[in-house]
Amino acid sequence: MGTTQLETVPEPKYWHLRTVLSEALENEFSVGEVLPNERELAARFGVARATLRQALEQLELEGRLQRRRGVGTTVAPPRMGVSVGPAQHGWPGAPGDAWQALDCTLEVPPASVAETLVTGRDEPVHIVRRSRVSHGQPVAAELLYIPASSVPDLTGIDLPSGTARARAVLRELQHLELERQENTVELGSANAEDARELDRLPGAPVLVVTTRFITRGRTAALSVATYRADTCRLTFGDTGAVEIHHGPERRAS
């Protein structure tokens, strides 16, 4: 067989530079360190700034670099694993939970959430807002929706909102017996609120992980967690299968 055309194409300059830069990141820079500006980097490696930008953009896509507003280009921390397998991990707020509770309010949820929780459209639920931080940087934001029926003993707690009420709601949730949890994952774009909480620009790619916590055959809590796509990677459970949806049919690969 003859040589294919692709095999005769030389490696693009930006890709070679990406390899060189990757080695420099491992040997010369630490997590969170700000890189020199484009002019200095282009001069150091003897390339055009357009070539340098292509290499930097590739490393950003791979999660090796982060561009932060008002700071510049920094070395990204190692990607955090987001498990979407079948294994149970317990209720939110259980010991070992890496999330930080920020606030809790009693509000009417979006219609889609009310439908999942099987609550009335005008029925308020507890909305716990949480954050997850890695190497001092926010990597995920979560809204946890909990109907009043899941935490009935909370009525005697006189905490209208705030971190203390969030923790109280999560403690009450631990009293339920968790049967299972179901995860779904979607690729999305950061809205204005997500971008502000995650220190990203609006429209930046994010992973949206929705988790239903089920007890006695009903959804006792619903988590909608938004992860920065540049800092996270998906990990799978025991089977390693990825479900692919084709219309009404479902297959596993």
TrEMBL record:
InterPro entries registered for this protein in UniProt: Bact_HTH_transcr_reg (IPR050679), Chorismate_lyase_/UTRA_dom_sf (IPR028978), Tscrpt_reg_HTH_GntR (IPR000524), UTRA (IPR011663), WH-like_DNA-bd_sf (IPR036388), WH_DNA-bd_sf (IPR036390)
A Pfam family per the record: GntR
Chain ranges of the HTH gntR-type domain: 11-78
Keywords: DNA-binding, Transcription, Transcription regulation
Protein name in UniProt: GntR family transcriptional regulator
Protein's organism: Streptomyces thermocarboxydovorans
